[in-house]
Design brief:
Strand order of the largest sheet: 3-2-1-4-5-6-10
Distance between the termini: 47 Å
Strand content: 5-15%
CATH architecture of the largest domain: 3-Layer(aba) Sandwich
Largest sheet: 7 strands, parallel
Length: about 325
Amino acid sequence: MTARTEKRVALVAGASGIIGHATAFELKRQRWSVRALARRPIAGLRSIAADLTDAEATAAGLKQAADTTHVFYAALSPDPDLSIEAERNGRMLGNLLDGLEAAGAPLRRVVIYQGFKIYGIHLGAKVRTPARESDPPHMPPNIYLAQEAQLKARGEEARWDYVALRPDVVVGDIHGNPMNIALVVGVFAELSRALRIPMRFPGTDKAYRQLVQFTDARLLARASGWAATSDKAGGEAFNVTNGDVFRWERMWEDAARHLGLETAPPIPLTLAATWPTRDHCGTRSRSSTASSSRILPSLSAGDSAISSSTPSPT
């Protein structure tokens, strides 16, 4: 049976996120049978609502996914403690794989999403560019190493294999997800407006002026379809970026102009520590009184995107 005639049934874990959402709808466009797995139902998709940290609840929910042939694993539960983050996310993936095995799913391939943290960029490592998939990882704890350990432990006796895709900072247009860099910029802009100050880039001069790269969620979604079906991709890892580059110096000015704000030289801030817990603006604007539990993940993501974007060749 060729790849073209085989039935393809996708389970997209983390379908409420930027990567998972784009991937689910791209696969649907390509006429896959698609199920979304998230904590809440996803509009426009057949959905399984489950908490992957709960093994029993996950197994129960996956009984309705017994025909799954491909998993696209984009679920994420971040934590500032890297050991906790690695253990919890590794366990979540293990719960999903065990649940599918218990359901008797004819799984053929798992596509998992990593990132440049595999090279230690979040720890301050100077990652050589362009990054190569053969570049070594760093000493644990690392979320991606913990997830790969789960895959390798099960894959040795399984009939399925896996492919790792490694985007840089992912950008997309999903609404309501806190890990969206557009939301970070929007929140920061409205805080600046309420304070009646210029919209200053909250990173270093170096980060402001160096060339950086992003990964469009739609490009990553198309790469996901290829990675799931190419015979040559099994067991491999692939860095996925747009291939074009920019400087925050230009992008920040463009964003500020679009939002009707002035700019000024950068002043480094840790957004997650500076903004979420109290009203700095002295007003009751929607931006300044928003729930810290909703804004904090977004600002944390912004800190990561602004301070540790992989520099591209100059």
